[in-house]
Amino acid sequence: MGQCYGKGIELDDDTFKREKEKEEVSSKASKRNSSSYDHHHNSSSKDYYYSHESYNNSNWSSHTSPLPRYASSTPSTPLRLFKRPFPPPSPARHIQSSLVKRHGRAAAGAPNPNQGGAGGVAAGGATAGGFIPQSSSVELCEKPLDKHFGYPKNFSAKYELGHEVGRGHFGHTCFARIRKGDLKGQPIAVKIISKAKMTTAIAIEDVRREVKILRALTGHENLVHYYDACEDNLNVYIVMELCEGGELLDRILSRGGRYSEEDAKVVVQQILSIVSFCHLQGVVHRDLKPENFLFSTKDEHAQLKAIDFGLSDFVKPDERLNDIVGSAYYVAPEVLHRSYSMEADIWSIGVITYILLCGSRPFWARTESGIFRAVLRADPSFEELPWPSVSTQAKDFVKRLLNKDLRRRMTASQALMHPWIGTNEKVPLDILVYRLVRNYLRSSSMKRAALKALSKTLMEEDLVYLRAQFLLLEPNKNGRVTFENFRTALLKNATEAMKESRVFEILSSMDSLSFKKMDFPEFCAAAISVHQLEGTDRWEDHVRTAYAFFEKDGNHVISIEELAREMGLAPSVPAAVFQDWVRHSDGRLSFVGFSKLLHGVTSRPSGRRHHQ
Ligand SMILES: Nc1ncnc2c1ncn2[C@@H]1O[C@H](COP(=O)(O)OP(=O)(O)OP(=O)(O)O)[C@@H](O)[C@H]1O
Ligand SMILES: [Ca+2]
Fold first, then answer.
1. Active-site positions?
2. What's the predicted TM-score (pTM) here?
């Protein structure tokens, strides 16, 4: 868990290190000590306890509730200048003692046959006595674990190990040199993960996945370069580029707790660049924090590199993850509600940016449950010093990342185009565009007409992003794109990771585009994000103007059955529900109905990993 100390703190190095170590323990314990048998289908023990604590202590939401129950007034987190160096308590209680506490010794010791498979805790299944960690049966039965990774075993022959350069809870990283070949003598870093600490199947799977993701994504300039993975009886060795410039956290501290806006921009742009790349590949990092970004050299302007993909995962199109992992200060609200995807990383970038700009954490409390409460219902303060002297654009940027509604949050590609960052570099392809275009192609002609009307109201600042995305699809000389353009653009960016995250599946429901061509105005209608637009204060104007366009081109008499279908409601829904949605005078869609049509009336999904 990231501990940042802002301006006003005078901590000697030792105090800082001690506090940081404590936090690392709390964060890591939540990671490889977890004991779920199947990471993808079950909740791990750490996730379970982490979340269980948060809900029980905060006492205002339940596991089964998919949506946050926001308090009527949204209190603001007081700005904290990290004067209090102690970290929140660890989320990782030992599973056995917790089980004993909740279910008695016999229950804790006995494997529960009903807990196996995909239908356990993660299915949102509260048992009468509370939640039983899915993994309990797995950890408690003594099944031998297969700790063979299939990596080469000649680590010592290839590399000469040197001093330690960093330490995490389950591994440490050492300086090393390549012994042979063209690169003989080249300094490298080796992350050494002890097999003794891999006490569960999920812990082993975590390491396997960390290597797989690093290997697949390597090549991006803001990602630590992966070279090799080896193993012996004792350890797994991840061989990678040596980053000599230290952690971003240390640089923040050495600058007195915060960055100037100009310098912060340079850092945030690099973070967004690697994260947008990961997201396009279908990889979610899940542990973005200043400790997990290193500078390649000690130089002031050195490149920033993302490290530590130990909590990362592949996410299939439309899949929601449910395990609660990460670091308390950086965790997104929807993670605490166990239904999240890439947007959770964006929230963490919002927290990092907030810290960079003001030197304080946006969500602060002395206890972990207090932090979670703040994340779920407090609005970060932008009133206290130094915020009054921070530019409006910077504040707008942070607010658009720290939006509690994940659908209103910017994507990494969008954030790179936000005027505060104003990147001149090539904009990355945004997977959100694919999702929205696919949804558009699946929707009814009435919904499409509504989206077309709305897209006519877009302003230049919205169009800049859409134009950039359209250009990435390389339209033909008549300015149109087909299915093939979408496919080729994805292929151009494909890495091995896309196989695992099945990114190409998103194309399968776009095949109606094989027979038609889409011009830029239609692309805008398809790729417009209603929810994001709704998050702006100009939404009312947009929707009113759009309704006027819709009246001219798309409004027609609609039956209740048709309306129910349009809104995705069951035919059994009482007609009274639709009363205001249809204009009594002529049976056409009313303004209210039009807004509902744009917005959709279906609620967000809940519970475990599942498809939307
Ligand atoms: N490529 C590298 N070059 C230099 N130092 C590194 C490198 N990779 C990791 N380190 C150092 O080792 C520390 C631990 O690495 P990493 O975060 O990957 O391990 P971890 O066990 O997963 O840690 P954590 O408990 O923080 O999640 C880093 O914070 C950093 O200081
Ligand atoms: Ca780390």
1. 287
2. 0.79
